[in-house]
Q: What sequence folds into this?
DNA sequence: AATTTCATACAGTTTAAACTGTACGTTATT
DNA sequence: AATAACGTACAGTTTAAACTGTATGAAATT
């Protein structure tokens, strides 16, 4: 299954290099991206040792990388009769997996951050009465307005990315 | 304009810290994100020296950071009568600016990468005839199919992000 | 039960990014 | 014209991430 001619070898490397760049835009590290592409091109599930050999990196690096990819739900651990080593396989459906994973990451982060900002906002609301200095009051108002803008910003992001979710799998029977 | 009480100072720092996390998701480095938020909270344009003082970083760091932000079209250099130093101001419209900038980055990258992959694809098409080894032919077919999938992937991304563009400014009169 | 094979935790190293301080050229002020 | 103030290029340093090799514990094989 591994490339067995100079020509194919080079092409393989080139594809890995190029496609990795795209996957890095989905917030994968270069290492994770290369690992995914290797698995994806290979089609068949691979062991840590095979990945290690294919990428010329240590087994530990593969173990760490795979852990990230599995956490992101982009790679699956599969079982094969008689094979003792762990086997991992890249999901075939690039678009659905990456979009879903990516959008979810955005939504989680936006929600978390919005919450943090709201907390600051409420602190501000509670503490503002204690302030007497007029110049400070004005400045607090300023900050308060900005906080409102930021929170609205998060709401818009959440809305936009929610709309972006791919149709659910059962909806797109083809 | 700078915070003048312990309480406000802390709150300011907290807001910068939290909101920066969100902006980092738009592919800003932590430094760039903090710089933008500082500018944004300040409202009034700032000089490099003021930013340097506000963030406790060197002037060179500010100069570099601002350069990135200006390139991303998130910060504008403004002119003020009688002020000799360069003045920079964060754009008010968070959502439009960040979305536009971010989507454009995606579209540019997706297009560039799709082109690279297509080039590899055509190399493959031209060279495949020279191959005689049956096992290699099969493998080339495999790689060819995957390449097609990847290219399709880029097209889908381009489509999705194009749809995501905020309405043009003149369209959203409010 | 002893041995081998595996994945991963851990400590140390390498590599790349962020940052600093000085030096330089340019523009404004005297 | 000379001096001062400014932004940034550059070289060196610090810091954080990625990676390696060994050690360890768990699971399978003998």
A:
């Amino acid at each position: 299954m591994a490339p067995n001619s100079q020509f194919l070898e080079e092409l393989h490397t080139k594809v890995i290099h190029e496609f990795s760049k795209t996957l890095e835009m989905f917030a994968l590290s270069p290492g994770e991206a290369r690992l995914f592409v290797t698995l994806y091109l290979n089609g068949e599930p691979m062991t840590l040792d095979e990945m290690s050999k294919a990428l010329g990196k240590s087994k530990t690096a593969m173990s760490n990388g795979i852990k990230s990819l599995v956490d992101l739900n982009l790679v699956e651990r599969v079982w094969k009769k008689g094979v003792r080593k762990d086997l991992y396989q890249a999901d075939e459906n690039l678009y659905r997996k990456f979009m879903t994973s990516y959008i979810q990451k955005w939504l989680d982060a936006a929600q978390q951050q919005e919450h943090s900002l709201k907390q600051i906002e409420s602190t501000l609301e509670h503490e503002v009465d204690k302030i007497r200095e007029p110049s400070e009051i004005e400045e607090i108002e300023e900050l308060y307005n900005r906080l409102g803008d930021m929170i609205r910003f998060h709401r818009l992001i959440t809305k936009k990315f929610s709309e972006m979710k791919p149709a659910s799998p059962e909806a797109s029977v083809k």
User: Anything to note?
Assistant: Chain A is about 70% helix and 5% strand.
